[in-house]
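Below sits my pick:
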Amino acid sequence: MITWILQVSERAQNPTLFLIGIILIYITGVILLAAVVWKFYEHRMAAQVLEKQRAHFFSTREMLLLVLMLFPCWIGSWGQVRLPVAAQYFFFVLGTAGLLFATLWHVWAKLNIGTLWSDGIEIKTDHPLRTTGAYALARHPMYASLLLWCWCGSLMLANALTWIVVSGVFLPLMVRRAKAEEQWLLQKNPDYALYQNNVRMLSVTLAGGWSVLVRLVLALALCYFTAAHQITLSVLGGLVFIHLYLGYSLKPEKTAFSYRSKSGMMTVFGLLGLYVHPAFFYFFYVIVAMCLYGLKWNCPCMWVYEKYHGCPCFMLIKKCRLQR
């Protein structure tokens, strides 16, 4: 087994990081699988008084199959992109931290939910609303942590193919499953609407000091990559993804909107810098300045959100479509 892993590691752009990454993915993957088996056993043994229930086409089995589909790509380095050395280590460290956090968060969520866990969608006769612990970070922490685990595994191994599969297939199915559950939860407990307004669905809810710290680190990292002229198409994709994730994690909403807007600006300036003229990369310093300014005051994106409560360009397009 060890010999085989050493052989496949030679296909990776950085064999050392690949070996560490694969070992971490396997260890944490076994932990997640053990947690799932335990919940199935607990659910089977517990006496359940159900108000209503139904199966869902995207059950634990389908989630497991999708996760298993990622492993051949990770192991074989299929879909791995080339990165500058500094970017390899940056994304590896970031992915490792996220992978470990996602594993702990997933187990924590399964402990928090207790006997309320189910493979299908179930509403118990006495169905309390969980809003603390792991559920203070996301409304569906088990789904959110599993998505984060998959994304961070892809980030560690610089695998664009698995990232696309998780984002294009796994994420929409998770959103659909989560929305189906929330319909029943709202009917059971109207207070769930307040919970929805304050906690993100499938990403880590970041507010207060943690929000400032994450945004500061990201701004400094972006500044470093720009100054070192190490922004390639792959690095650009990674930075845009991180900004998008924060755009659906940060609180208040105007801060989240600013990061979603910045991800769009980064995409435009990055592609122009790569394919038109390198001078466009200097606009990244404007984004860095906006990120740093936004730590304490309203940056232009935040000001736009306060004035229009959304993107005026998209609002205009939507209005034109409705008038047709």
Remarks:
- The first strand starts at residue 50 and ends at 54.
- DSSP finds 13 helices and two strands in the chain.
- The CA atoms of residues 101 and 145 lie 8 Å apart.
